[in-house]
Write a structure and sequence with these properties.
The structure holds three protein chains of three kinds.
Chain A lengths: L1 H5 L1 H8 L1 H32 L6 H17 L4 H24 L7 H23 L17 E6 L3 E6 H23 L1 H11 L1 H6 L4 H26 L6 H4 L3 H8 L4 H22 L8 H15 L14
Chain B lengths: L20 E12 L2 E12 L3 E5 L6 H8 L7 E6 L2 E3 L4 H6 L2 E3 L12 H7 L9 H6 L3 H20 L14 H14 L4 E5 L7 H17 L3 E5 L3 H7 L2 E6 L2 E6 L1 H6 L1 H8 L4
Parallel strand pairs in B: 3-8, 3-9, 6-7, 7-8
Antiparallel strand pairs in B: 1-2, 1-4, 4-5, 9-10
Chain C lengths: L12 H4 L6 H21 L2 H27 L7 H18 L5 H20 L7 H21 L12 E2 L3 E3 L2 E4 L5 H24 L1 H11 L1 H6 L4 H28 L1 E2 L6 H14 L4 H25 L5 H22 L3 H15 L5
Antiparallel strand pairs in C: 1-4, 2-3
Helix pairs in contact in C: 3-7, 3-8, 3-10, 3-11, 3-12, 4-5, 4-6, 4-10, 5-10, 7-8, 7-10, 8-10, 11-12, 12-13, 12-14
Classes of the chains: A mainly alpha, B alpha/beta, C mainly alpha.
Keywords (chain C): Cell membrane, Membrane, Transmembrane, Transmembrane helix
Membrane topology (chain C): Multi-pass membrane protein
Protein name (chain C): Branched-chain amino acid ABC transporter permease
């Protein structure tokens, strides 16, 4: 038993390095996708202090809209542009109808409002597009679909899907763009002010409404990108919504307001759960992927409650 | 109960500095990361006195109180509480051994009524366990009523009968401060730490609060340590004053001595070095 | 007019500290209990009892449980569903091991198992607050769900992976299993719910309830006043999980007859959380109102097309119900973030001064 836990997995890693590399790659890709979802959370949290539970369903919704439009005969690129338009309308609507009347409410109320939003979007999405999983229009969007196999060692083989590589590249580009947006622009500074204190920000003349519409739109764009990438790997379906909860442990590791934190947190969770599942999961019957991420976050929290990049919290009275 | 007590009318058998020792801090230092909040401070508090801690903003006054009731743990120094020497206090210990306090920014339980807030001060003195609480009728109810009587006495003393059932979040600031004092009094403390009890009050409210503090001191015999910026109040109320500046002690003595101290004058008025 | 407290003088602290200090409230409660125990059983049909009242009561109890933790102690939990599941599986195993013991007793005992599990997952709450704590409870949710699926012993290695409730009697009346009549189940569920609600209300108005609220409102001040944070929070976790566990056990024993791990999924956690928030954080009465809203509203929505003779598919109705519930949640949060309990208070206040509001 002890051998199975402490020795055997490492022996396997050493003896079959190609498999280990493949696992790492899988972990990397999963991590990138978690990071993308977490990024959507971070954007909205930074700008409004709202923990947006609806990010998961926004990913599904964006993906479904794109696929649904294409199914109805809209060319792929036009569908993409229209979907961006839909996300903009959604962002404006959310700001107008949900966020604006709830300024200055306690966090838990705002959190609940986004869960209410989740319910609404689930109903709305299923009503329009139906509940069945749909295939993502990967090729039509000009995204690569093939795969490359790298020979490794004597008879080893590591297979990389092109779409995964594309996902990684797009994720990195988006993170870079967002980092610039947050740190170098006037709107970015306003965003950080709003995150600190709604009323104080209002009092120095920052328009909350405009800021929130912008962030929700940005989060919608991130959701669309996530939806395309994730959809290309599996299918576009409402099951994705549960996976979005994984963003929570990612955020715990990386901190709720840190963009690089979201990326690194996502990667740690991605690597951690794939390795744990494939090397240790079998010992307890498998399927530990569903909760392992939360346990990582939990253990982490006990030792470093402020997150990877947070400063030590000094409580004042 | 409501007779106005002035300092002069109090019997004062011995000067404050000769009374029995209640609490002493020796060479206490506290820092956060690289920032030194308190450097090597020693002073004592004697039974029955009103001890003022003054100093400019950021001098480390609140940190000092936090050290005394165990919310911050100093890196160096010792605290002697009723003859027992220890490295640091723990909040629970401090509370159960009779140290109560009020806070600079009112720290009331906002969702609860005035009555419940003051009742919460009795928590340590109530003991009926969970199963009696479930039943309510009988021991739990009797205990609750017994403590309710004590709390009503405090409510009478502070003249806040009218707001008994009002959630404290809705009260004006001055009354909140008063409720907070009531909550601390409900603990029947031996030492009462008051962190700026009169901040943000108008003259009338300050006079009321001063009267309450003196009454508490003389009627219940409670020792009081208070932080206050209003020098008039400090000089009138306190028996002895300790002055902090940039985390260091610069003076300690009776109000008259402190007033005449050159270092204190420099700290408050600024001095060119 | 008729809701007046004028002329009712409280002459003792006992009277002032009663659960319902105003006479009209006492009468109102009496009427509600009379309706619940006498009128509904006499008049309601089986559908109403089995699909409306029983689930409503089960959810109310679960909402009271979560309210203890989130509404009174201020600790956000997203693991309610799993804690309910622990109660259900514990009760199931207990009836398998002790088939002759009264099933109601076993259901009440099963709560202790979820209380223990709840306290374990409450341990991190000493260091973790707010949203961060939500992650701990999510860990509980997904980990326990995984246990319900993977640990065959818990469901007696059934091929279906579900737990099926055996038939059990009390005083010669079948109260659990498929043959039990809705009426018998209704009485069991109603009695347990009312009893626990009453006991919890007692705890909440005393020293322990106050210590929870102290932690919720200002944990630092509470600590400096001699409240031990860990003990207090763990107690809230344990009591909350006990109540949720009993609700979970009742859910499968007296309502569903059979349950799968997915019955206790995160969806259930959210449902209960909605009930608590909409009903009003920190209000036992609100838990009932919230449960009524979240459970009964979709039933009504589903019934509307039939009544209007409109022909739309069942699925469409389901989706529309989702949308309406989501929209109404947002609507109520905007209108009254403190929930129905506050609306009820405001209404009572208005009634007191009616018809001369100034």
């Amino acid at each position: 038993m002890l051998y199975d836990i402490f020795v055997d997995p490492f022996v396997q890693m050493y003896q079959m390095p190609d498999f280990f590399l493949q696992v790492l790659w899988e972990g990397f890709v999963a991590g990138i996708l978690y990071a993308l979802i977490a990024l959507g959370f971070v954007l909205i949290f930074k700008a409004s202090g709202v923990f947006n539970f609806a990010q998961g369903i926004m990913v599904v919704f964006a993906g479904l809209t794109l696929v649904g439009l294409h199914e109805n005969g809209v060319p792929a690129y036009l569908a993409l542009i229209l979907t961006i338009g839909v996300m903009a309308v959604l962002a404006y609507g959310i700001e107008r109808i949900v966020m604006r009347p709830l300024v200055n409410q306690p966090d838990i109320i705002l959190l609940m409002a986004t869960i209410g939003l989740t319910y609404f979007l689930i109903g709305f999405g299923e009503l329009i597009f139906g509940g069945e999983p749909k295939r993502m229009i990967t090729e039509e969007l000009g995204l690569p679909t093939g795969s490359t196999a790298f020979e490794f060692g004597e008879r080893g083989l590591v297979i990389l899907q092109h779409i995964d590589i594309a996902a990684a590249v797009i994720a990195i580009l988006m993170v870079g763009a967002l980092a610039v947006f947050f740190n170098k622009t006037r709107i970015g500074r306003a965003l950080r002010a709003v995150a600190d204190d709604h009323q104080a920000a209002l009092s120095v003349g920052i328009s909350l409404n405009q800021i929130w519409a912008i962030v929700w739109f940005a989060a919608g764009l991130v959701a669309l990108a996530t939806g395309i990438m994730w959809g290309a790997r599996s299918d576009v379906s409402f099951a994705l919504e549960i996976i979005a909860f994984k963003a929570l442990p990612v955020l715990i590791l990386g901190g709720f307001t840190s963009i690089p934190g979201a990326i690194i947190g996502g990667l740690i969770i991605g690597f951690g759960e794939k390795i744990a599942e494939l090397y240790w999961g079998g010992l307890v019957g498998g399927g530990i992927e569903s909760w392992f991420a939360y346990i990582i976050a939990l253990i982490f929290l006990l030792f470093r409650p402020q997150g990877l990049f947070g400063e030590k919290i000094i409580e004042r009275v | 109960m409501n007779a106005i007590v002035t300092k002069e009318s109090l019997p004062e058998p011995r000067p404050a500095s000769e009374r029995e020792l209640l609490l002493r801090v020796d060479n206490v230092s506290l820092s956060f990361g690289g920032v030194k909040a308190i450097t090597d401070i020693s002073f004592d508090i004697r039974k029955g006195e009103v001890r003022a801690i003054i100093g400019p903003n950021g001098a480390g006054k609140t940190s000092m109180l936090n050290v005394i009731n165990g919310f911050y743990h100093p890196q160096e120094g010792t605290i002697t509480w009723r003859g027992e020497v220890r490295r640091k206090m723990r909040p629970y210990e401090a509370a159960s051994q009779g140290i109560a306090r009020t806070f600079q920014n009112v720290a009331l339980f906002k969702g609860m009524t005035t009555l419940d807030n003051i009742m919460s001060g009795r928590s340590l003195k109530m003991s009926r366990n969970f199963f009696w609480q479930l039943l309510w009728r009988g021991p739990a109810e009797r205990e609750e009523i017994e403590h309710r009587r004590k709390v009503e006495e405090i409510i009478d003393f502070l003249e806040i009968q009218a707001i008994r059932k009002t959630p404290v979040g809705r009260l004006p600031y001055g009354l909140q401060k008063r409720v907070e004092l009531g909550r601390a009094l409900a603990m029947e403390p031996e030492l009462l730490l008051l962190d700026e009890p009169m901040a943000g009050m108008n003259l009338e409210e300050k006079e009321d609060m001063s009267r309450f503090i003196l009454d508490v001191n003389s009627e219940f015999g409670t020792t009081i340590a208070l932080i206050e910026h209003d020098m008039g109040v400090v000089m009138d109320l306190s028996d002895r004053v300790v002055v902090l500046d940039y985390g260091k002690k610069i003076a300690d003595g009776t109000p008259e001595e402190v007033q005449a101290n050159q270092a204190v004058i420099d700290a408050y008025l600024g001095v060119s070095h | 007019m008729f809701y007046r407290e004028a002329g009712q003088f409280k002459t003792s602290y006992e009277a002032d500290q009663a659960l319902f200090p105003i006479r009209q409230d006492k009468i109102g409660l009496g009427i509600i209990l009379l309706v619940a125990f006498v009128v509904i059983p006499l008049t309601a049909n089986d559908f109403f009892l089995a699909s409306v009242m029983i689930p409503f009561l089960v959810f109310s109890l679960a909402a009271i449980g979560l309210n203890v933790l989130t509404g009174f102690c201020g600790q956000l939990s997203l693991g309610t569903g799993a804690f309910m599941g622990v109660g259900a599986y514990a009760a199931y195993k207990l009836t398998t091991i002790f088939p002759d013991v009264n099933v109601i007793f076993l259901v009440l005992v099963s709560g202790f198992f979820s209380a223990a599990i709840g306290a374990i997952f409450g341990l991190p709450s000493l260091r973790i607050k707010g949203l961060y704590l939500a992650v701990t409870t999510l860990a509980a949710q997904f980990f326990l769900e995984w246990c319900f699926i993977r640990i065959g012993w818990l469901y007696n290695y059934n091929a279906s992976g579900a737990i099926e409730i055996p038939t059990r009697e009390m005083f010669g009346v079948i109260i659990s299993g498929a043959e039990a009549t809705p009426l018998a189940r209704y009485f069991v569920v109603l009695t347990i719910t009312v009893l626990i609600a009453f006991l919890i209300a007692n705890v909440l108005r005393g020293r322990i309830g106050r210590s929870w609220m102290m932690i919720r409102d200002m944990d630092i001040a509470a600590e400096l006043m001699g409240i031990r944070p860990l003990q207090t929070k763990l107690m809230a976790f344990a009591v909350s999980s006990y109540v949720c566990g009993v609700a979970g056990a009742m859910m499968v024993f007296f309502w569903l007859n059979a349950a799968e791990p997915s019955s206790y999924s995160i969806t259930l956690s959210f449902q209960i959380l909605f009930m608590v928030i909409l009903g009003g954080l920190g209000s036992v009465g609100g838990a009932f109102m919230g449960a009524a809203f979240i459970w009964i509203l979709p039933i009504v929505l589903r019934a509307i097309p039939n009544m209007l003779d409109v022909d739309i598919g069942a699925e469409t109705v389901e989706h529309l119900a989702f949308m309406v519930v989501g929209a109404l949640i947002i609507f109520f949060l905007i209108v009254e973030p403190h929930g129905f309990a506050r609306l009820w208070q405001i209404a009572k206040q208005k009634l007191r001064v009616w018809p001369f509001p100034y």
